[in-house]
């Protein structure tokens, strides 16, 4: 297999001014962040502006999806902050 055909993905966390978090997976986080801030993404459309606060290392799609699922399960408590090192805002409802 040609190594140039191998795709790598990253899990990312973005946050809006109200402290709301969104967790996703992308091959190109800068393009995806632009999508979130320009209304391309439905869930984040009217909740921005969004700022990138954390990214994972590069990994396979399967690994990235597993990590995304793990982080989303942790979002309601302190697990997400512990796993990523993202500082918890005082006004963040999560």
What do these coordinates show?
The protein has 94 residues and is an alpha+beta fold. The chain has helices spanning 29-37, 61-74, 79-84; strands at 10-16, 21-26, 50-55. The chain has a three-stranded antiparallel beta sheet with strand order 2-1-3. A hairpin with a 4-residue loop joins strand 1 (10-16) and strand 2 (21-26). The longest helix is centred in the C-terminal third of the chain and has 14 residues, at 61-74. The mean pLDDT is 88.
Task: Give the helices and strands, then pairings.
Layout: E1 10-16, E2 21-26, H1 29-37, E3 50-55, H2 61-74, H3 79-84
Antiparallel strand pairs: 1-2, 1-3
Task: Describe the structure concisely.
The protein has 94 residues and is α+β, with helices and mostly antiparallel strands. Helices cover 31% and strands 20% of the residues.
Order of helices and strands: EEHEHH
The largest pleated sheet is described as: 3 strands, antiparallel
Widest beta sheet: strand line-up: 2-1-3
Low-confidence stretches: none
What number of domains?
A: 1
Distance between the termini: 44 Å
Number of strands: 3
**What's the CATH class label?**
Alpha Beta
Residues in helices, as a percent range: 25-40%
What's the shape? globular
Give the structural class.
Answer: alpha+beta
Per DSSP, what share of the residues sits in E-state strands of 2 or more residues?
15-25%
Count of helical regions: 3
Q: Could you name the CATH topology?
A: GIY-YIG endonuclease
Question: Over all CA atoms, what is the radius of gyration?
Answer: 14 Å
What is the architecture at the second tier of CATH?
3-Layer(aba) Sandwich
Average pLDDT reading: 88
